[in-house]
């Protein structure tokens, strides 16, 4: 009938922003799964991290599916989201960034299948973040969820560049077209 239930049992229309955020987060996990498969084919060591990210995205979804306005204490205990995963992403970003040459121009999503899939994942991640921010602003989701998605998009960008470098693939540079 066009309605679905949150984790708290509250019925909301399927086009509610909570379900939009949940669907986009699920899409992000699927995109990361594809990037992980490409990375696995190339023997990239970061594939384990991507699996961990997919698990964290399940926790992100649990938090989103538990609107704070209707959550009881038992719900909150099961779906809380800490700052620890955000800090871990920052460590990973630093680790890979240190190994990359500095950016001197805008790059286009490119650099081989692993890199391109990670760039695609980054774009989906940014959309997921845009879906979650209004929920955080409305007091319906934990601010750490939005922080996690924000740092995750940066991680995916750095990882895309790292994958291209490791595979010896060229990143395509943005060239402004002549008028």
UniProtKB/TrEMBL annotation:
Gene3D superfamilies: Cobalamin adenosyltransferase-like. GO terms for molecular function: ATP binding; corrinoid adenosyltransferase activity. It catalyses: cob(I)alamin-[corrinoid adenosyltransferase] + ATP = apo-[corrinoid adenosyltransferase] + adenosylcob(III)alamin + triphosphate. SUPFAM superfamilies: Cobalamin adenosyltransferase-like. InterPro entries: CblAdoTrfase-like (IPR016030), CblAdoTrfase-like_sf (IPR036451), PduO-typ (IPR029499). NCBIfam families: PduO_Nterm. The lineage of its organism: Eukaryota, Metazoa, Chordata, Craniata, Vertebrata. It holds the Pfam family Cob_adeno_trans. The gene is Mmab. Homotrimer. Converts cob(I)alamin to adenosylcobalamin (adenosylcob(III)alamin), a coenzyme for methylmalonyl-CoA mutase, therefore participates in the final step of the vitamin B12 conversion. Generates adenosylcobalamin (AdoCbl) and directly delivers the cofactor to MUT in a transfer that is stimulated by ATP-binding to MMAB and gated by MMAA. Residues 1-163 form the Cobalamin adenosyltransferase-like domain. Keywords: ATP-binding, Nucleotide-binding, Transferase. Belongs to the Cob(I)alamin adenosyltransferase family. The keyword ATP-binding applies. GO terms for biological process: cobalamin metabolic process. This is Corrinoid adenosyltransferase MMAB. It comes from the Eukaryota.
